[in-house]
């Protein structure tokens, strides 16, 4: 449990870099993503979850 809060903090920092440094590009990116089909978004999300789990398993 001691690793959970630092991990969440790191995610928040990484996720905040895009809108902080490139707000217009970030807005355009979100508009483009919102136009994608639901199944494609699920595939991307699933891929990211699996990749994150594998990296967590590998580095821990």
Description:
- With 60 residues, the chain is mainly alpha-helical.
- The protein has 3 helices and no strands.
User: Could you describe the largest sheet, including whether it forms a barrel?
Assistant: none
Number of helices: 3
Alpha-beta classification: mainly alpha
Radius of gyration, taken over Cα atoms and rounded to an integer in Å: 14 Å
Could you give the count of β-strands? 0
Distance separating the two termini: 14 Å
The overall pLDDT average reads 93
Indicate the percent of residues in helices.
over 70%
Which percent range describes the beta-strand content?
Answer: under 5%
Query: What's the overall geometry?
Result: flat
Low-confidence segments, given as residue ranges, are none
Order of helices and strands: HHH
Secondary structure elements and pairings:
Elements: H1 4-21, H2 23-34, H3 38-59
Concise summary:
Pfam families: DUF2065. This protein is mainly α. The chain has three helices and no strands.
List keywords for this structure.
single chain, mainly alpha, 60 residues, 87% helix
């Amino acid at each position: 449990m001691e690793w959970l809060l630092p991990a969440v903090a790191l995610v928040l920092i990484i996720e905040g870099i895009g809108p902080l440094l490139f707000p217009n590009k970030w807005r355009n990116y979100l508009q483009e993503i919102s136009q994608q089909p639901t199944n494609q978004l699920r595939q991307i999300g699933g891929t990211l979850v699996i990749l994150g789990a594998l990296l967590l398993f590998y580095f821990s």
